[in-house]
Amino acid sequence: MFKLNGLTGFTISRNAITAKRLLCGIGTSNIGKSSIEISDYPFEPSVVYLSASIAAHEIEAISLEFGVCKVYVKDDIVFVSAEKKKELAHFAKVHNLKLIPYSWNWDWLLEPYLDTEFTKENEQRVLERLLENGFTATEIDAIRAEVKKQMYAYNFDTMLWDWCSLSLSDVLSAMRAKYNKVQFRDLYSRALEIEKRSPTNTK
Question: Residues with Cβ < 8 Å from 10, sequence gap 6 or more?
Answer without folding.
Answer: 1
